[in-house]
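ARCHIVE CARD
Drawer: 12
Card no.: 0347
Subject: one protein chain, sequence and derived structure
Cross-reference: see card 0346
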Amino acid sequence: MELGFRPRRSMLYVPGCNLHYLDRARTLAADSVILDLGDPILIACKIESRDNVVAAVKQGGYGSREVVVRVNNLDSIWGHDDIKAVANIGADAILFPNIESADDVHTALKWLDEAGGSHMPIMVMIESPIAVLNAKEIAAASDRIACIVMATSDLISQLHARVTHERSAILTSLSLVILAARAYGRCVVDGISSDFKNMHSFEYACRLGRDMGFDGKSLVHPAQIAYSNDAYTPKSSEIKNARTIIHALKEANEAGRGTVVVDDKLVEHHHVKAAQRLLKLHDMIAELEEEFI
């Protein structure tokens, strides 16, 4: 399974400049919260946001939610200081934006290690055409990459494309990044939907992303959490089928057969591996959601 395998059905961006949002994130049913120091934060609020996020993570209270800090770009005037400030505050991972090559990954890790964060997993954002084309080398750059996060809004702008319900302009890019992530055992999460009041389009994007192979979706508004969680939660019928597949192939193997037919479908070993991953995810989601009740 992927490094740091865990539910990431919903990854909610939380602006570091807003103390109310940082506090409210402790009560929301998001699997992961991304405490954000990056581009959405006004220049005048950069230092204050960093201080707020450091204090919030040290204070704790986020339970079993994954706590991720997104720092500023490596080539920005804040990036290096962000890394030094958050390397040892107790976050679960550091998210590096605008990663476009393996060299960028190595630079991020070098700076993080120098700041005392050699124990920290990282996440990397794919947000440009060159990053998509280099997704394979980015995914292969380090086994400390716990997750690849798409920045689809940035990508669409740089492609000079249009946002459509069907997401046709970026389907190829999404598939290329998913392929790279799975080739190297990385979790991969879909980008945001900025039109957070259009729940019809958002729900479609969640289910399309799920069917393509994403582990979850990044979000910009708490109202999106329930839709994303529902789309990426294995259904009871899927859990039942997974257990049936595992049991049926085990019996077939014991009888000297390498395959078996379940519900008119051929089952082989790779189906069992997928079923086991699904059941593990189901159990982890159930444990996480006990905190949300």
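Annotation on reverse: The chain has two domains: 10-232, 236-292. The chain has twelve helices and ten strands.
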